[in-house]
Amino acid sequence: MMNSRRPDNRPPSEFEEKVVQVNRVSKKGKGGNKISFSVLVVVGDKKGRVGAGLGGAPDVSAAVKKAVIYARKHLITVPMYKTTIPHVIFVKLGAARIMLKPAPPGTGVIAGGPVRAVVETAGIRDIVSKILGTSNKASNVYATMEALRQLKAIKKKA
User: Fold this and answer.
1) Mean predicted confidence (pLDDT) in 76-104
2) Total of domains in the chain
3) How do residues 37-50 score in pLDDT, each as one tens digit?
4) Which of 12, 73, 9, 10 is nearest to 41 (CA)?
């Protein structure tokens, strides 16, 4: 009989988790270097809800857990039109500049790594995007989240 629980005894989650970046960070201390890990995670239910979190811990798995907990607490709902976004949006957040464009059905996700992770976990299936500013993954994830937050839903005609 197969148990539907995970090995660490948690029930299966409705959210998909994508690790975007794992960064090894080092801090000088009196006993030498203190090494820890910083992990950027995107969490989404593929039905229009998505969140991003950054977690740090002495080992990668603990950092991922922290990032996922933060991301789940800070979910946003993305307005969608069929399988794409309602309109074109351009966002500048710090050095990151992101452009998102709706695409016709069947186009797929045309996006770079950090934007792709956010958009796919949100459940958007057709979109064209361009990263124009920095190549910093964290900055681009947060800029994409801000772009999705600023989207306006299309009002239905009565």
Assistant:
1) 94
2) 2
3) 999 999 999 999 99
4) 73
Neighbour-count burial for 55-93, b at 16+ CB within 10 Å, e otherwise: bebeebeebbebbbebbbeebbebebeebbbbeebebeb
Query: According to the model, what pLDDT value does residue 35 have?
Result: 95
Query: The domain that contains 97 carries what CATH number?
Result: 3.30.230.10
The two structure tokens encoding residue 6:
């995970």
Contact 46, 18 (CB under 8 A): no
Stated pTM of the model = 0.87
Burial of residue 156 (number of CB atoms within 10 Å: 0-12, 13-18, 19+)? exposed
Q: What does the pLDDT read at residue 155? A: 79
Q: What's the domain range around 26? A: 16-76
